[in-house]
């Protein structure tokens, strides 16, 4: 599908997006991580599981208090910024950028996630998300080892593999770090 970038609406997520984001997030992982995660963890991926996580980040607690992870207008108190990409009334991608999660991160900013459904690969939507939220700031990210398409995308955007690797204790996913100075 070769849609024009202008056909995408980039906006902050809202509480109304919880279920759609859960389905999107699950679908993206099922498309991108097949064969890269351990089979049991891969089989356990469900839209409901992902929607629960998005619900904690987008729906205020009954007390009305906004915790550090709650996103309001796409931003959290801890410094995270999230945007979604919408096309034809459907969510097709999202990005999350925030402060470094590691104490010894190579930069102060980390690209936590950028995910786009496979049918929108090559349309420019991932680039639009990256440009909108991260811009050309120095940052680092962790990418699944074997996700060559993502690695090439990041390399086109100035990120370079720095040799650091990590294995997720829960799902067996091996990740490689990329840095842009």
From TrEMBL:
Domain N-acetyltransferase: 8-180
Name of protein: GNAT family N-acetyltransferase
UniProt signal peptide: none
Protein keywords: Transferase
Alphabetical list of InterPro entries matching this protein: Acyl_CoA_acyltransferase, GNAT_dom
Gene Ontology MF terms: acyltransferase activity, transferring groups other than amino-acyl groups
């Amino acid at each position: 599908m070769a849609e024009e970038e202008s056909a995408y609406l980039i906006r902050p997520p809202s509480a109304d997006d919880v279920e759609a984001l859960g389905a999107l997030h699950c679908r993206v992982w099922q498309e991108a991580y097949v064969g890269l995660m351990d089979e049991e963890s891969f089989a356990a991926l469900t839209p409901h599981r992902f929607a629960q996580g998005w619900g904690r980040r987008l729906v205020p607690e009954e007390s009305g208090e906004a915790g550090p992870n709650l996103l309001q207008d796409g931003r959290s108190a801890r410094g995270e910024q999230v945007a979604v990409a919408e096309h034809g009334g459907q969510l097709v991608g999202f990005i999350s950028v925030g402060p470094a999660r590691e104490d010894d991160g190579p930069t102060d900013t980390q690209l936590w996630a950028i995910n786009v459904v496979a049918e929108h690969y090559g349309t420019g939507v991932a680039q639009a998300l990256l440009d909108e939220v991260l811009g050309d700031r120095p940052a680092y990210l962790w990418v699944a080892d074997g996700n060559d398409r993502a690695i090439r995308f990041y390399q086109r955007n100035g990120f370079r593999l720095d040799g650091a690797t990590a294995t997720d204790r829960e799902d067996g996913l091996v990740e490689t770090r990329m840095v842009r100075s």
